[in-house]
């Protein structure tokens, strides 16, 4: 599987509790933090849910 790099570019302040939990599940805790994951359907769903808060490099 391919790798995907996810970077948090917008704050989670005033966001829904489930969106905050999704960011934590992705391993994102601070702005401009970058994490790398395998591109699985579960990770793709998480990225889609918080797509307005992150940028993605494939």
TrEMBL record:
GO terms for biological process: translation. GO terms for cellular component: cytosolic large ribosomal subunit. Transmembrane segments: none annotated. Signal peptide: none annotated. Keywords: Ribonucleoprotein, Ribosomal protein. Residues 4-54 form the Large ribosomal subunit protein uL30-like ferredoxin-like fold domain. One of its GO terms (molecular function) is structural constituent of ribosome. CDD domains: Ribosomal_L30. It comes from the Bacteria. Gene3D superfamilies: Ribosomal protein L30, ferredoxin-like fold domain. The keyword DNA-binding does not apply. Part of the 50S ribosomal subunit. Belongs to the universal ribosomal protein uL30 family. This is Large ribosomal subunit protein uL30.
